Structure prediction request, 175 residues.
Amino acid sequence: MQYKRAHVKGGTYFFTLTLQNRKLSILTDYFSQLRDSFNKVKSNHPFILDAMVVLPEHLHVLMTLPENDSEYAKRLLLIKAGFSRQLPKFENISESRAKKGERGIWQRRYWEHCIRDENDFNHHVDYIHYNPVKHGYVDRPTGWHYSTIHRYIENGILDQNWGAEYHGDFDIKNP
Prediction:
């Protein structure tokens, strides 16, 4: 069975992008290059970055596309390629990747989920912001620099202590 992705024009989507080698910390080591790649793609192919967290080997993104646009795959491809081009060559590239002109930085596929409603949106925002705690990088969400939680706090959407007392997991498979 071949997986079919959802393509909703103007939709909001949750994505997980993962490095090919999960032992590396490229995403946080080269965070400014990743941010530049997102900004370049956003300027040419607009989207709203609703929430995001960058961990050393994977990232979670919640983005909303413009009305009448469902081309998230193009945006993700450009973000990944733009980021990869900015990195020094250090990885082993398989023959199949070399034939396709790929670097071997990212896993080819990604997780995608089309947001269904406001509750689903809020649940995924919480999952994104709590993810560094879930993975043991920090004790509280505000302790992680590479997260939009700081923007949510600055804009008064979340309290400074959001998630500090929570000791569970935000399960996105069964919101």
